[in-house]
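Thread: Newbie trying to understand structure tokens

Hi all, I'm a second-year student working on a class project, and my supervisor (Dr. K.) asked me to get a predicted structure for one chain before our next meeting. I've only ever worked with sequences, so writing a 3D structure as a token string is new to me. If someone could post the tokens and maybe explain what I'm looking at, I'd be very grateful. Here's the chain:
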Amino acid sequence: MKQIDIYTSNNCQYCHEAMEFFNESNLEFTEHNISINKEAKSSIIKKGYRSVPLIIIDGQEILGFNKERIVTLLI
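---
Reply by user tm_fold:
Sure, no problem. This is what the structure looks like when written as tokens:
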């Protein structure tokens, strides 16, 4: 099973779409909400990102909800 982490924020439509995709695909993931978790926000800033969703699949980072890239990494 692949490790999936999704960095989100409360008012991010693409974040909600990404989580919906993973839920509908019955894939387990860990959500890190930067709106309420300062450590999560600090973590993505250290990686050089300033926006979400940031999806990390087994160490491979995807900024934004790019379904095709996600599927490629899941195969």
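A couple of things are worth pointing out once you decode it. The helical segments are 13-24, 38-46, 67-74. The longest strand covers residues 4-8. Feel free to ask follow-ups in this thread.
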